[in-house]
Amino acid sequence: FPAILHPEVFQVVPGTLEISSTSIKLNWTCRLPATCQHVRATCRLAVPASPPCEAEEVKGEEMLHGGEGTFTCPPLQPFTDYSITISLPPSTIFFTWLVRTKETVQI
Fold first, then answer.
1. Hey, where are the domains in the chain?
2. How far is CA 1 from CA 5, 77, 93, in A?
3. Are 84 and 93 in contact (CB under 8 A)?
4. Quick check: bond before 51 cis, omega within 30?
5. How does 63-96 read in b/e, with b if 16+ C-beta sit within 10 Å?
6. In terms of CATH architecture, what is 10-100?
7. What is the DSSP string of 55-88?
8. Is the CA virtual torsion 101, 49, 75, 25 positive or negative?
9. Of the N and C termini of the chain, which has fewer Cβ atoms inside 10 Å?
10. Hey, is 4 helix, strand or coil?
11. What is the pTM of this model?
C-alpha cells in the first residue's frame, strides 16, 4: 500500500488559492518535510488537446521541498479549465482541483 499522508501533514493553506486570467497560485505547508520531499504539484489543461500532446497538456510541474512554499502555474490562457493536482508518485493523490482562469479584462 502506498503511504497515505494525513491531511494534517500536508495542507494547502486555506484561502490562498489565487486565480487570475493567466496564473494560478497556492501556498502549501508540510509538517514532515522529509515525508513531503517527493510531493509533486502539476498544472495541466483539464481538456486534453487533440491530438493528445503531453508536452502541451502539462503546463507546470514542480517538486515541493521543505516545510512550506508557493506553487505557481506558469503563464496560462484566460478563461480555460485547468486541473491542479498535488500527488506523491506513483499512486497517491492528495488534492485535485478543477480551476477556470478568469476572463481577460479589457482596459
1. 10-100
2. 12, 38, 13
3. no
4. yes
5. ebeeeebebebeebeeebebbbebbbeeeeebee
6. Sandwich (2.60)
7. HHHEEEEEE--SSEEEEE--S--TT-EEEEEEEE
8. positive
9. C
10. coil
11. 0.77
At 54 the three-state DSSP class reads helix
Cα–Cα distance measured from residue 92 to residue 75, given in angstroms and rounded to the nearest whole number: 27
Whether 75 contacts 22, CB under 8 Å: yes
* Sign of the dihedral defined by the CA atoms of residues 49, 50, 52, 54, in that order: negative
* Tens-place pLDDT, residues 6-32: 666 788 898 999 999 999 999 999 888
